[in-house]
Design brief:
With 353 residues, the chain is an alpha+beta fold. The protein is 44% helix and 20% strand. It folds into 3 domains: 3-118, 2-Layer Sandwich (Beta-Lactamase); 122-193; 200-351, Histidine kinase-like ATPase, C-terminal domain (Heat Shock Protein 90, 2-Layer Sandwich), CATH 3.30.565. The chain has helices at 3-23, 42-48, 60-64, 69-79, 120-139, 141-157, 164-193, 204-221, 242-258, 319-329, and strands spanning 27-31, 37-40, 89-93, 98-106, 112-118, 199-202, 226-230, 238-240, 266-273, 278-284, 333-338, 344-351. The strands form 3 sheets. The protein has a 5-stranded antiparallel beta sheet, sandwiched between helices. Strands 7-9-10-12-11 form a 5-stranded mixed beta sheet, with helices on one face. The structure holds adenosine-5'-diphosphate.
Length: 353
């Protein structure tokens, strides 16, 4: 290919790339080293509600006069050290009632590309879900308590051997299930939204020992042993919500007991990863394992896997959701390693403050 042909091909490629960037539904902003904006795609102009114009010396702050969301983006951008990649973050425009995930990527020659992806639909749905959850869990309690109260009085008024006694028993058992579900919804709401009251200087080994002592009778019933491997002298004192962290370990151990056969030991390990500034905890069992397709689902609220006979597990499907939510509220994260018939390892880490 001749030099002219190469130049023509390159310029065509450039043109196509530019068309593509302008056609994107996401807002794309290009920024040069000095903080000057070099590119705004069509999505940005239409969001700003103005016709495209020359970008002489524009910076993110100039965009903020159109919408405060860009001020938030500019703050994050200014807060970066210019070297390490910035974590994607969420920003909200109160004026436009829109939510975005913002990704900031550093290209070559100190050029930056900011992408604002509209997630308003998901966020609106989540807010709606939360509202419904709140309404259902709190406002259904009183009428349900009334139904239970009166239903439990009916048998006293019935003649002996009345078939209505069976009807009332069914009503009471159904209302009990509903109460259980409402309790679960309240737990979900609390764990998600209640402020975290942190305990300081928590000795992690003591916390684990307390939970293990509580779980041992359940394990013994299944002829299982809980083996704890913690290098106690290396563990730093932790700042965490003690009751919630007890729930996390209790749920992982309880699942390991529930989902593995008799006589198979369960191993809980915890150590201080000094390099990463984390405490890492793993619970390994030798149970049925989980398929990789289920990995993301099992952490969802109210998700229950299936037993080998195809029936849903008996639980409420909240244990792992609680584990993940609590750990993430402590700025940590969870993971899972598992294979069918080869047991599972559930792990989580917490930052050491
Ligand atoms: P629940 O145990 O009440 O069903 P969880 O949220 O604790 O709810 O777990 C969700 C699902 O994940 C379970 O129904 C089960 O299918 C699967 N699971 C959890 N822990 C294990 C484990 N250790 N081994 C195999 N499957 C597990």
């Amino acid at each position: 290919m001749s030099a002219e042909e190469q130049i023509a091909a390159l310029s065509l490629q450039n043109q196509q790339l530019e068309q593509l960037i302008h056609a994107l539904p996401d807002m794309v902003i290009g920024i040069a080293a000095a903080g000057h904006i070099t590119l705004l795609n069509d999505a940005v102009w239409s969001y700003l509600g103005v016709a495209p114009q020359p970008l002489t010396q524009w910076s993110l702050v100039d965009l903020a006069q159109y919408d405060a969301v860009f001020e938030e983006v500019a703050d994050h951008f200014a807060g970066s050290d210019g070297v390490s990649p910035l974590k994607p973050f969420e920003a909200r425009s109160e004026a436009h009632k829109r939510d975005f995930t913002v990704t900031i990527t550093r290209g070559s020659d100190d050029q930056w590309v900011l992408v604002l992806h509209d997630i308003s639909a998901q966020r609106d749905l989540m807010r709606f879900k939360n509202e419904v959850l709140k309404l259902a869990s709190h406002d259904l309690r009183s009428p349900l308590a009334l139904v239970i109260g009166y239903a439990s009085l009916i048998p006293m008024e019935l003649p002996p051997n009345s078939p209505a006694a069976d009807y009332v028993a069914s009503i009471l058992s159904a209302t009990e299930r509903m109460t259980g579900l409402l309790d679960a919804m309240i737990i979900v709401e609390q764990v998600r939204n209640a402020p975290l009251e942190l305990d300081r200087f928590v000795i992690f080994g003591d916390l684990v020992a307390e939970v293990v002592a509580r779980m041992e009778p359940q394990a013994a019933q299944n002829h299982q042993q809980i083996i704890v491997e913690i290098a106690l002298d290396t563990m730093p004192p932790m700042t965490l919500h003690r009751p919630y962290m007890i729930d996390v370990i209790e749920n992982l151990l309880s699942n390991a007991i529930k989902y593995s056969p008799e006589d198979r030991p369960i191993v809980l390990r915890a150590w201080h990863d000094v390099e990463q500034g984390r405490v890492v905890v793993t619970v390994r069992d030798q149970g049925a394992g989980i398929t990789s397709e289920e990995f993301s689902r099992i952490f969802e609220a109210f998700y229950r896997g299936k037993q080998p006979n195809g029936r849903r597990n008996d639980g409420r499907g909240l244990g792992l959701w609680l584990v993940k939510t609590i750990v993430q509220r402590h700025q940590g994260d969870v993971w899972i390693e598992s294979q069918i018939n080869d047991g599972s390892l559930f792990g989580f880490w917490l930052p050491v403050s």
